[in-house]
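ugh ok fine here u go
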Amino acid sequence: MGGDTENRMIESDYGSTEGEDGVKEKVYIETSVISYLCARPSRDLVVAANQEVTREWWEKERPRYKLFISQLVTAEIRAGDEDAAAKRIKAVKGIEVLTANHESEDLAGKLMQEATLPSRVGDDIAQLAVAAVYRMDYLLTWNCAHIANPHWLKKIEGIVVNAGFNMPVVCDPQALLEGEHE
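structure:
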């Protein structure tokens, strides 16, 4: 990674576990996951189920992974209702914050242009670019319209790989909750 890369850590208030090889897989937590984690239970049955899965993953599986967010996520979770924002900010305490850099900004621009994506998804693609540049193993999201969009992901993966980065596995908490661990 380039010299622009700066990381900072928010004080941690939970312990961690390591896999057999001593190295944890890296998970970039996208804003929608934090929103589902902290939101009041929805009346929509599908959303309520997704919220419950998110809470279950957060409580049971989170320690298995090294978690990351970016300053893009911190900006989004600070927006809106003050009490809800405070709850979201508290939830990410202890998670390392990645800073967008020239590499991620260039990759995001390349993705937008080469995949011919609509400008309204720029912030979401910027998060995907940060995850790729920092070599995350997974990008955890409930944003199936803009990030986990299967119609876009194959093209996006090709662009990411051609730019010299590995494409993180883009999935929702259900996939990491149910997946087998080695």
